[in-house]
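re: that chain from earlier
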Amino acid sequence: MDEIDVPPFFLCPISLEIMKDPVTVLTGITYDRESIEKWLFSGKNTTCPVTKQVIADCELTPNHTLRRLIQSWCMLNASNGIERIPTPKPPISKAQITKLLNDAKSPQQQIKCLRRLQSMASENATNKRCMESSGAVEFLASIVSHSDFTAAEESLDNEFESIRPTDVALSILYNLQLSEAALKNLMGKNGDFILSLTRVMQRGSYESRAYAVLLLKPMLEIADPMQLISLRPELFVELIQVLRDQISQQASKATLQLLVSICPWGRNKIKAAEVGAVPVLIDLLLDSSERRACEMILTVLDAVCGCAEGRSELLRHGAGLAVVSKKILRVSQVASERAVRILLSISKFCANTTVLQEMLQLGVVAKLCLVLELDCGFKTKERAREVLKLHARVWKNSPCIPSNLLSSYPV
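^ sequence. v structure.
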């Protein structure tokens, strides 16, 4: 390839490679379909990479003339090792999708429709956006909302090679990578679809439960404050159950990210504490060595310990204080900062004689002294100093603090 002069207009401005499926955007610039789709849809960009103009309509027009020129040039240079570029499969049209959805009347036709939609979505991002604008999202949401998880769905499994409509509909919805507008529409004003996903998490298969969580994450990221404040306790029950069951690493990560974003709102931290979030999080923290997972678990614990119910649950757990303290200086500055914040909450609001003695005996106080000696962030040091000052009369002269750390104890 290096020895051949490739006409510059055959190259995609993004990938700088020969275009296989050239398409033109509204600004008049031609790109390879795969590259511009990734730029517009996956990267969520709204401008033309070359002209920097805003692209109001993301419609991509195939440049057949240029594609034929590239194919002819490739054939002429086949002896030089240039491979022929096949004619790309045309993207699906709105009319085709609308007909497919309208024909899906019976359960059997719905299964066929779901298979076809799944295949379309896997082909390219243009198909995904076309499906989104042609009513496919509403069709898929309807299947999820009306699923009854009874023998009726099981019978379809047997006839159609163990394909569960709910599982497939949820997987397609997740893989469509819905736009913000589509997610808001799916949420609805009353959050009815969240109730449907909660029901899936209560009664669905492991696969459905995982996809429900993965779909909830982007939905709640764009939810308005009133919707976040109004989340029902049943949702928190199921989120914690996903963590407890360890359905998959991806589902657990999405659940933790969800809890990080929703716990600070309203009474959500109390809802999480009341359904048993704290012991599950401590057990996960005890078993986790991965940096990002530890940071997220500690962030959720910090939020939940912002209420009396959360702090009570932490102290009730036999390993609560020990596990939180152990992560200080062992994971990352973020993890240390979150862990010290948790200990500060306990020290401020739960500092009875038993708790203070336990913190001494478990080495929590010694660890906080060590924080003051090492480079672990200004805020973390300030919070550690505040904890130590709060209970200096009890801790300062204790034999539980190593002599080499006593000099660090704040006056």
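The beta strands are 22-24, 30-32, 61-62.
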